[in-house]
Amino acid sequence: SKGQHGSFLARPSKSRPGGFTLSVRWVGGDVTHIKIQNTGDYYDLYGGEKFATLAELVQHYTGQRGGLLRERGGAPVELWHPLSCQDPTSERWYHGHLSGKEAEKLLMQKGRPGSFLVRESQSKPGDFVLSVLTQQLDRADRQARVTHVMIHFQPDGKYDVGGGERFDTLGDLVECYRKNPLVERSGTVVHLQQVSQEPIQEHPPL
What we know:
GO cellular component, one term: cytoplasm
Largest sheet: 5 strands, mixed
Distance between the termini: 31 Å
GO biological process, one term: positive regulation of ERK1 and ERK2 cascade
CATH architecture of the largest domain: 2-Layer Sandwich
Number of strands: 14
Strand order of the largest sheet: 4-3-2-1-7
Subcellular location: Cytoplasm
Helix content: 10-25%
Number of helices: 3
Order of helices and strands: EEEEHEEEHEEEEHEEE
GO molecular function: cell adhesion molecule binding; non-membrane spanning protein tyrosine phosphatase activity; receptor tyrosine kinase binding
Strand content: 25-35%
CATH class of the largest domain: Alpha Beta
Pfam families: SH2
CATH topology of the largest domain: SHC Adaptor Protein
């Protein structure tokens, strides 16, 4: 509903796990959607030049008069005015394709209570998971345990944790819960205190 010719935003894809969609406004107000592939190693437009990050891809195609991009009919697509690029991939807390078990291993080995990371959900493609090493001790072995909180990506492009406040980006959600404790469904109070900075070597942050 906002924007001018060449206005665009990048958002996570609901239909393709890990992928993104570039939505661009045309003259007359029409919006075209361009699919961005995320292989885990690079980003591209399902062919053509490859980029290490989503930000590099967007920067490459921005500000090119006549447009380097083409829509299906062959007409050029120009990117001029970024409205919002929901790019979590450059954040230190984002670990992309990481399983729940791998997240637990990483946090238990390297983290302290309050350490956290965000990863893509494997059970619900398009959603994300906040994995946190909590203060609460496991009664069996008296160790801190890892709590997994589902982050839902809604059809309107907002993020939430199953109720309560909704956010425009993953970054906004993380920043909010770094300042305010999050109460998980089981009643566990989750504090986000520090980013898990040392990735498992086989699965580095994207």
